[in-house]
């Protein structure tokens, strides 16, 4: 019996025994709705999973509940089971990696600074009236050792940052900069170097004319104090440094005879292990070659790079009306200087400005007077002073004046951390023996330098200015590398070499 259309089952079709008659059973309306709904939701899920916005993104905006909940984990608790991928046969995903730790920018540069008893520093400043027998040093102790602030000194200076700084005040200025050093540490085990804030230059000046026992008393006290410290015993002082802001000869007396000059600070065995920053090294004493020469303080102590740039622009644009100049006195009786010959040649030349100290209205202790001479000259003659070096060298460079030396020990073998390796790039050397032997004319030598070479040397001198000045210790806006920064780099590098055992026979 053949089934009729009234006997069909929904969703089925039957073949009548191959007779060719196929009966189609029509789906109900409910089945159609289910099929359309299923297809619609399948498309929605497909677009959402594949990041394609389209209709799905418009109709179904994501909410906080669209994302899987993160487990709430407190200390000592495990994630709640419902937040795990239970039943999926998979382990929970690994936790996210920890945030990157920023590199320690002070690594290898930490400095530990002793808190010395005040008799080694602050008490010396308080006793400023007794630091020199011929003058009151108190005015020069103000402003962290920079001295009283100055105005423009008749146009010699411009902007801010100018002070009447004494040439032997570096100990105080350096200590002020160290107090603001960004890599100070209270943990000596982290320190790359250990700073001893002893005001050796102030102590060395107050008893210059007294007995040797008085001159050496505070230095010996310091050595005994350091020897009791565990920080000292760690390396026997080889990682320690101090600032002795005078020439090394002032601290290198050989005997205990009262007529000999200076004290014995740098000759004490304990201090010989340390690094001393001095204004001039004693190059005839091999044990003191480990000491470092640093620039004399100048009158300029900028707060920021903007102060430096403004000054550089001023000296770059200054008209140089004199070919060369000399500011100083004759030093009668000193057979090691060529000052007499320099004064004679300069005085005889129409192209030389002679600022003869003590003659007439010339006052070499006037910062403005000396700087005006240097600012108006292309070359500034720098013979030795009482020793090989002079503060005047740094005043001349500060004025944009090319220094002319008469002995390599006046700069080239001294300030190796601060001056270029090529001395010809910023200076001229005329050997003192050629001047005293009257074998050379200073004017002719300088006149024969081409204008292009002069311009290049002057530009290099101006570029050196920030490297040779000490920024204002009170400033928190120091954003350039100054003489203090370069000195610190040299100290830390030297101590690191000692730690590695490659300092050679010096140690």
UniProtKB/TrEMBL annotation:
GO terms for molecular function: glycosyltransferase activity. Residues 105-444 form the Exostosin GT47 domain. The keyword Endoplasmic reticulum does not apply. It comes from the Eukaryota. Keywords: Glycosyltransferase, Golgi apparatus, Signal-anchor, Transferase, Transmembrane. Coiled coil: none annotated. It is found in: Golgi apparatus membrane. Residues 1-21, 72-99 are annotated as: Disordered. InterPro entries: Exostosin (IPR004263), Exostosin_GT47 (IPR040911). The keyword Glycosyltransferase applies. GO terms for cellular component: Golgi membrane. Belongs to the glycosyltransferase 47 family. This is Exostosin GT47 domain-containing protein.
